[in-house]
Design goal:
alpha/beta, Rossmann fold, GMP Synthetase, Chain A, domain 3, 14-stranded mixed β-sheet, 5-stranded parallel β-sheet, 27 strands
Length: 515
């Protein structure tokens, strides 16, 4: 089963139904299918063949969707790159994936000038106004439809290389297959959440990012309508929900926080909503409660997922408050085990590294592997088990709790301290807007806890008060020994806190007695 054939099926069954809406532009399933065939024929004219990589460095627009399906028609592999990433990051992804075609929007061309030499020998396909020697995307989209070669069954199931965020090193390209997408978004999500062809999805994040990609796949796999925002704006989001009768809203918690003030004023304009699908950071209970209070007709779904293994767990609507701190129970069909450093399973209630298995890599939910990295793939996937690097625990009822990243755990005086637990306690203080905890060297205990704090506007808070706040809520050995107040936590282009940078900063400050 292939994604482009699912699109073709919807084009036959509901040809006039709107598939995608972006910037007021609408394209039907029949038009999307036909235009993606035209783009595929144009790419084939540029020499793209099965297994070749095509980089899509495009803003949220219909062209991104057309390019994606065009690569599928050819048995080629799309490398989606978020336009919020820098030109330097783009050159790395392009070189690492050995891509032969770079598809960009003309608004990005000036930013790419300093690194243009890195793309020599590649075909540039440009949406908007291209420069001399570049191929207009419109020319591909206007190409005559031609009979494309039949895609071989062998070695053509790989459809994307999605790069991990790289918070601890150079990003790795996870090779994602047709089966990975179809089983997750066409089968499991639709069944678990009750998604239907008459749903209208609103995407608030970049399509090239995992969250936006997942909601796009949800919509187009079940034959629903996808509404895409160029960039998130809460006022525009409410307008689109009302105007397009949006029933399924995908977002990260940050979007929820930005949307809430507007929902408090005009929640009735969002009466069409029936699903809110949230992933990303831990979803704060107070935000969940506010959403459900304002939108009582909505079912709230949150889950824990990774690029390498898809959605591992899901917390459905009725569980959002009964197990608010949990990431949910394991997705049916997914195997998990929690192990200690020797690989032995830990008892229920104790934390261990989370290992996930969903069958042979590439066949179900688990990625094929890391592109051009056999050694790292062999370390990450052992006997089908993906070593996630996350520390988790399971309770007696099978609910999972992510307590930390293994690499972020602090070992102080022989005690394991999970930084996520300390961060959650810090965030309970009314004056704390955001917090990140890392370990720093300590002459007596080996490591000590250091906390970086963003304060709410106008707040005044000192380290001693904050440490006492922690002392009252967690064991004394877990409380921060060092507190650093910062204007903003350093984050990568996808919003993840750069803890390696914080560790370095904290170590230098502690060494020089700054905290």
């Amino acid at each position: 089963m292939r994604l482009e054939l699912i699109l073709a099926g919807h084009a036959r069954r509901t040809p006039g139904k709107t598939a995608v809406v972006v910037h007021g532009k609408r394209i039907s399933y029949a038009e999307l299918h036909e235009s993606s065939l035209r783009v595929a024929a144009g790419l084939r004219g540029l020499g793209v063949r099965p297994g070749d990589r095509v980089v899509g460095y495009l803003p949220n627009d219909i062209a991104f969707v057309q390019l994606m399906f065009a690569t599928f028609h050819l048995g080629a592999i799309l490398v989606p790159v978020n336009t919020r990433l820098t030109a330097k990051e783009l050159t790395y992804f392009t070189a690492d994936s050995e891509a032969g075609v770079l598809c960009v929007d003309s608004s990005s061309l000036a930013a790419l000038d300093p690194v243009a030499d890195a793309f020599k020998g590649m075909h540039w396909v440009v949406t908007g106004t291209p420069r001399p020697g570049q191929v207009p995307f419109g020319t591909l989209a206007a190409h005559a439809i031609e009979e494309l070669p039949e895609i071989p069954l062998a070695n053509c199931e790989d459809c994307m290389v999605i790069y991990t965020s790289g918070t601890t090193g150079r990003p790795k390209g996870a090779v994602i297959t047709m089966a990975n997408f179809i089983i997750m978004h066409h089968h499991l999500n639709a069944l678990d959440w009750g998604l239907r062809a008459d749903d209208v999805f609103l995407v608030t994040t970049p399509l090239a990012h995992r969250t936006g990609m997942a909601r796009m796949m949800n919509a187009l796999c079940v034959g629903a309508t996808l509404v895409v925002m160029e960039r998130f704006d809460p006022v525009q989001a409410v307008k689109l929900i009302e105007q397009e009768k949006v029933s399924a809203l995908g977002m990260v918690p940050t979007v929820a926080r930005m949307l809430l003030p507007h929902l408090r004023e005009t929640a009735e304009r969002c009466s069409s909503l029936r699903h809110i699908i949230v992933t990303g950071e831990a979803f704060p209970v107070e935000v969940k409660k506010a959403l459900i209070d304002l939108l009582p007709q909505v079912a709230l779904h949150s889950f824990f997922a990774m690029t390498e293994v898809g959605a591992v767990t899901c917390l459905n609507h009725d569980e959002q408050f009964t197990h608010a701190a949990s990431v949910g129970r394991v997705t049916p069909g997914v195997e998990v085990k929690l192990v200690d450093d020797s690989g032995k399973r830990v008892p229920v209630g104790e934390a261990g590294e989370l290992l996930v298995r969903t069958g042979a890599p590439g066949n179900f939910l688990t990625m094929r592997g890391y592109y051009r990295r056999p050694e790292e793939t062999a370390k990450a996937i052992v006997d089908g088990w993906v070593h996630t690097g996350d520390m988790a625990r399971l309770d007696e009822d099978g609910y999972m709790y992510i307590v930390d990243r293994k690499k972020d755990m602090v070992l102080s005086g022989g005690f394991n301290i999970y930084t996520k637990e300390v961060e959650q306690v810090l965030l309970e203080h009314a004056d704390v807007l955001d917090a990140a905890v890392v370990g720093v060297p300590d002459a007596i205990f080996g490591e000590a806890v250091a906390a970086f704090i963003e304060l709410r506007a106008g707040s005044r808070l000192d380290a001693a008060t904050l440490i006492e706040h922690c002392r009252e809520r967690i064991a004394g050995y877990k409380k921060p020994k060092h507190v650093f107040f910062v204007d903003n936590l350093p984050r990568n282009a996808l919003g993840k806190v750069l803890k390696a940078q914080l560790r370095e900063s904290a170590a230098k400050s502690v060494e020089h007695g700054a905290a």
